[in-house]
Amino acid sequence: MPFRTRSAYAFLAPYLLIFATFWVWPIINSFLISFQNTRINPWKYSLQSNWGRLFYDPAFYNSLYNTLIILVIQVPVMIALATVMAVLLNSPLLKARPLFRFAFFAPVVVGEVAYAAVFRLMFSLDFGVINKMISAVGFSPVSWFDNANAAMAVIILAVTWRWAGYNAIIILAGLQAIPDDVYEAATLDRVSKVQQFFHITLPLLKPIILFCVVLSVIGTMQLFTEPFLITNRGGPGGGTETLGLFLYRQGFTSLNFGYASAIAYTMAALAVVISLLNLWLGREPK
């Protein structure tokens, strides 16, 4: 091996050692743990105790259903809203554009615990501002956290508020990369602004939007903070319990590490499959 190659590997060795110790080995070890019955001492290999249980556990299917509901409703709404926000932020008619860009991106900077506490207070039955607004227009206050559908709506609103601006900034970067000549030529051909948006802007933004969709899918599959803090650990009655929260409950409440590992790998596999499906659906025609 040439001296320069050996030198390069020598410089990389500390990083590779840390990477293998704290990233590669935990992934391999957790996969091996998923095949062990960790409810007995010593642990023993048992395919049925974790992977077998996974396919017949109603609690797992409940958390999977809740996660997919958020994925199907929240992600498309958020991406559509982010696209509209990006177009508005890119408009030359908008004054103080840097200020608005910061304002839309700011929710990501806010701590998860703080913003979750604010949302829980906003939707409180007794003194929440949302119920006060509902009462002001003559309707009865809604008990948001005692009804599964209402609690799920709060989760979807919270996640959308936090991440719509983040995705809008990414899409805005894609918008600014589109040459102005394309729009000038379309304007000379008397193409309306609406037609330009659907036939020029959206097709050219497809790779950026797909990127945002994949990121959102991965984030939704790991959703934990919002159901844990806003709806009090996935309440009411597991109505907002996600896969991330179910994994936490099995691993750190029940101390069933083998089953939690099996859930974690199922989440990862689902995220990969759904992301690949989105990429396949959004592929360019040959």
UniProtKB/TrEMBL annotation:
Keyword vocabulary terms for this entry: Cell membrane, Membrane, Plasmid, Transmembrane, Transmembrane helix, Transport
Keyword Cell membrane: yes
Subcellular localization: Cell membrane
Family under the similarity heading: Belongs to the binding-protein-dependent transport system permease family.
Species in which this protein is naturally found: Rhizobium phaseoli
Membrane topology: Multi-pass membrane protein
Membrane-crossing residue ranges in chain numbering: 12-35, 64-90, 102-123, 150-175, 196-218, 257-281
Name used for this protein in its record: Sugar ABC transporter permease protein
Domain ABC transmembrane type-1 residues, every copy: 64-278
UniProt-listed Gene3D superfamilies: MetI-like
InterPro entries cross-referenced by the UniProt entry: ABC_transporter_permease, MetI-like, MetI-like_sf
Parts forming coiled coils: none
